[in-house]
Write a structure and sequence with these properties.
Structural class: alpha+beta
Shape: globular
CATH class of one domain: Alpha Beta
Largest sheet: 5 strands, antiparallel
Distance between the termini: 50 Å
Helix content: 25-40%
Radius of gyration: 18 Å
CATH topology of one domain: HIT family, subunit A
Strand order of the largest sheet: 1-2-3-5-4
Number of strands: 5
CATH architecture of one domain: 2-Layer Sandwich
Length: 151
């Protein structure tokens, strides 16, 4: 199946490029959810977060940070979202890893996740149990120990 982001990287589809590095490309999303909505993608085809190598993920994120600083200077937004989705259930529409960088304004209507109100805080013991379970499966190839729960 054709990948529109690979086509953009290859120059087969036009894009308004904002910045690039050796392995990452930032361009304006053709569907501007908010003014200044930028996508940052690896130049190589990588389907999702589960397939991306840590070094490449770092390069994509570093470019995303650079773009965020530029968006702050251009749009002067009071907020900003970094958004990355995986799988259809997560809202991923293009099967190529991408990071959305979106300048935000109060009541811009982009996200309605908490439209019905902010969820009540979860009990600490339930959160600690969940954190312990997640840590059991967290890969640590950088020598950094897993964080500990606070008592």
């Amino acid at each position: 199946m054709a990948c529109p982001f690979c086509d953009i990287v290859a120059g087969r589809i036009e894009a308004s490029v904002v910045a690039q590095t050796a392995h990452a490309l930032a361009f304006l999303d053709i569907r501007q959810a908010v003014p200044g909505h930028v996508l940052v993608v690896p130049k190589a085809h990588v389907e999702d977060i589960y397939a991306i190598e840590p070094a490449l993920a770092g390069e994509v994120m570093q470019l995303g940070v650079r773009v965020a600083h530029a968006l702050r200077e251009v749009f002067h937004p009071p907020g900003l979202n970094l958004w990355q989705s995986n799988g259809a259930a997560g809202g991923q529409e293009v099967a190529h890893f991408h990071l959305h960088v979106q300048p935000r304004r109060v009541a811009d209507g982009l996200l309605r996740v908490y439209a019905l109100g902010v969820p009540e805080p979860s009990p600490r013991d339930a959160l600690d149990d969940m954190a312990r379970h997640i840590r059991r499966f967290l890969p640590h190839d950088d020598g950094v120990p897993a964080p500990r729960s606070h008592p």
